[in-house]
Specification:
The complex is a heterodimer of chains A (about 110) and B (about 120). Chain A has strands at about 5, 10-15, 20-25, 30-35, 45-50, 55-60, 60-65, 70-75, 85-90, 95-100, 100-105. Chain A has about 110 residues and is mainly β. In chain A, strands 2, 4, 5, 9, 10 and 11 form a six-stranded mixed beta sheet that branches. Chain A has a five-stranded antiparallel beta sheet with strand order 1-3-8-7-6, with no helix packed on it. In chain A, strand 7 and strand 8 (about 70-75) form a beta hairpin. Chain A is globular. By secondary structure, chain B is mostly beta strands. Chain B is built from no helices and eleven strands. The relative contact order of chain B is 0.33. The chains are: A mainly beta (about 110), B mainly beta (about 120). Chains A and B meet through strand 4, strand 5 and strand 10 of A and strand 5 of B.
Amino acid sequence: GEDVEQSLFLSVREGDSSVINCTYTDSSSTYLYWYKQEPGAGLQLLTYIFSNMDMKQDQRLTVLLNKKDKHLSLRIADTQTGDSAIYFCAESTGKLIFGQGTELSVKP
Amino acid sequence: DADVTQTPRNRITKTGKRIMLECSQTKGHDRMYWYRQDPGLGLRLIYYSFDVKDINKGEISDGYSVSRQAQAKFSLSLESAIPNQTALYFCATSDPRQGWTGELFFGEGSRLTVL
């Protein structure tokens, strides 16, 4: 069945890089996503990657996709306190299946 | 104003009561979804609807029902609420037109507490 796994917590210092990892099970996923949830708010799409790509870069964000290992990662360069949030990985198989979410805490 | 609006935002109720959570959207999207969020479990899909005449069960539909009253409205009902339905509930929409990437647009959530 479809399953998406993430670690629950990550703590970094301001200015460091953050790397959030995700594994998924369905190799037929067309797109893979990273959503961000700020406190008290709904989820918003942060970035996505098409399944035939290995990497996507968007300003401070780098997404790496390893299809062989079914592993997706999100790197945030120069992490700021405003990046503190819960980050969800998701795969698309017609409908979106979300991971548990990784709570990123950025310490000054 | 939010494109996807959920009401109520917060609700406390008692075991056995009937509860309805409502969602309305101004995005003109055909597809609508209800998810629940629990700490450590992420988002789980309860029901989804690809158009007004289409209703589908998600991963965890037991104890819930939905109604798609119009393209813009999708409501979630708990016929007899129980404490383990205490959660944060999200409505979302999507639009599968050409070039669609599968992005979902979320409401701000409805926090339900069942005592």
